[in-house]
């Protein structure tokens, strides 16, 4: 077989492995990934021209990770980078898989964690090698964790929760463990905690979440509404997805990877929030900036208070769907918000922006 035929067959075997993994047949899945790896490795060795050579080594390296051969993944990624002509985009992807391999070699975890994990890869002018602004990392990690919880609750049939307490069954099932590594900065949640029996249960959850993030990133509002028909879950999902996305300042690009598709890690830009439409009963729209000093959920309408440099306090009404997951994490930070005036009250409109 030539290189193209070898690669095509490798992808067929990888798809079979994906299906086996979703069925929790991990031994069989690992064997299929290993078979696919051998074919892709042969294909890469047959090609000398770029970018085909680099792409095939990248594919083989991802398959090595899936086959739980981290050392081989590192070696194949290095081989792909050895060419002086490898395109920068492909080179960056090879560096990503090399970094994932190093993480697995240094901090080994049970095999199913490859199934039950979801990650973000951050790049931009505010990102160095393994370091970035604390808020840029922690807030995205927190938003990713909340996306996991909300997805698990939606799948389990829970009504949308407006309070911060996560159901104990959901917390126990997911037990997210945070992993941060350089490259430039990679954040990964490994679900199931240290309990190997729980890892498999989260595979479909991760696939569900990655699928909906991909649809959101493509801007397909109709399909996303079909996938998440509950209005509260839908609004919350969109807001959290925007929270993990690029801000076009310090973070210019975010890549999402998950579950049984590590080799399919593709950087994508999450869409910017649309400009809020002026509502018929609103008479004014403005922007406020200040430190978030208070969160009040004790009244019929929840609200927050911002304090600006002159000490002026602004109170804004906030939707219950956004309060806990989106607004509360900004407590104590200086933020910029857009607000619509309705009657005598200001209502938060759109997403808070960290200053």
Overall shape? elongated
Number of helices: 12
Structural class by helix and strand composition: alpha+beta
- Taken as a percent bin, the fraction of beta residues is 15-25%
Please outline the major beta sheet. Answer: 5 strands, antiparallel
Q: How widely separated are the two ends?
A: 56 Å
Helicity, in percent? 40-55%
- State the order of secondary-structure elements, H for helix, E for strand: HHHHHEHHEEHHHHEEEEEHEE
Low confidence ranges: 110-114, 260-268, 271-276, 278-282
> C-alpha Rg, in Å?
22 Å
Name the average pLDDT.
83
Number of strands: 10
The largest sheet has its strands arranged as 2-3-1-4-5
Topology:
Layout: H1 3-22, H2 26-46, H3 52-66, H4 70-81, H5 88-106, E1 117-123, H6 134-156, H7 168-174, E2 177-182, E3 185-190, H8 196-199, H9 203-217, H10 221-227, H11 231-244, E4 253-258, E5 266-268, E6 282-296, E7 303-307, E8 313-317, H12 320-327, E9 334-342, E10 345-354
Parallel strand pairs: 8-10
Antiparallel strand pairs: 1-3, 1-4, 2-3, 4-5, 6-7, 6-9, 7-8, 9-10
Helix pairs in contact: 1-2, 2-3, 3-4, 3-5, 4-5, 6-9, 6-11, 11-12
Written overview of the protein:
The chain has 355 residues and is of the alpha+beta class. The chain is built from 12 helices and 10 strands. The chain has helices at 3-22, 26-46, 52-66, 70-81, 88-106, 134-156, 168-174, 196-199, 203-217, 221-227, 231-244, 320-327; strands at residues 117-123, 177-182, 185-190, 253-258, 266-268, 282-296, 303-307, 313-317, 334-342, 345-354. It has a 5-stranded antiparallel sheet with strand order 2-3-1-4-5, with helices on one face. Helix 2 runs antiparallel to helix 3 (52-66) and helix 4 runs antiparallel to helix 5 (88-106). The termini are far apart. Mean pLDDT is 83; it is low at 110-114, 260-268, 271-276 and 278-282.
């Amino acid at each position: 077989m030539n290189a193209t035929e070898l690669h095509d067959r490798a992808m067929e075997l990888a798809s079979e492995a994906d299906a086996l993994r979703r069925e929790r047949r991990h031994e069989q899945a690992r064997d299929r990934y290993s078979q696919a790896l051998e074919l892709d490795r042969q294909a890469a060795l047959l090609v000398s021209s770029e970018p085909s050579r680099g792409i095939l080594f990248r594919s083989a390296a991802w398959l090595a990770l899936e086959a739980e051969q981290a050392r081989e993944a590192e070696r194949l990624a290095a081989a792909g980078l050895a060419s002086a002509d490898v395109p920068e985009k492909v080179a960056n992807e090879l560096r990503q898989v090399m970094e994932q391999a190093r993480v697995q070699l240094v901090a080994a975890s049970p095999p199913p964690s490859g199934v039950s994990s979801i990650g973000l890869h951050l790049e931009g002018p505010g990102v160095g090698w393994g370091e970035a602004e604390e808020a840029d990392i922690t807030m995205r990690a927190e938003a990713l964790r909340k996306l996991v919880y909300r997805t698990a609750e939606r799948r389990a049939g829970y009504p949308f929760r407006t309070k911060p307490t996560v159901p104990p069954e959901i917390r126990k099932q997911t037990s997210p463990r945070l992993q941060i590594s350089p490259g430039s900065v990679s954040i990964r949640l490994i679900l199931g905690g240290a309990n190997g029996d729980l890892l498999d249960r989260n595979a479909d959850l991760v696939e569900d979440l990655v699928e909906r993030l991909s649809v959101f990133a493509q801007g397909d509002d109709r399909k996303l509404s079909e996938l998440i028909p509950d209005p509260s879950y839908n609004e919350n999902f969109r807001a959290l997805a925007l929270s993990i996305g690029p801000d076009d300042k310090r973070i210019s690009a975010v890549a999402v990877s998950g579950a049984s598709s590590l080799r399919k890690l593709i950087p994508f830009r999450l869409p910017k929030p649309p400009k809020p439409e002026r509502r018929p009963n609103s008479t004014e729209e403005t922007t406020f900036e200040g430190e978030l000093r208070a969160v009040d959920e004790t009244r019929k309408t929840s609200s927050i208070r911002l304090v600006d440099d002159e000490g002026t306090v602004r109170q804004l009404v906030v939707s219950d769907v956004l309060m806990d997951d989106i607004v509360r994490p900004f407590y104590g930070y200086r933020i910029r918000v857009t607000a619509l005036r309705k009657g005598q009250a200001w209502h938060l409109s759109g997403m808070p922006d960290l200053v």
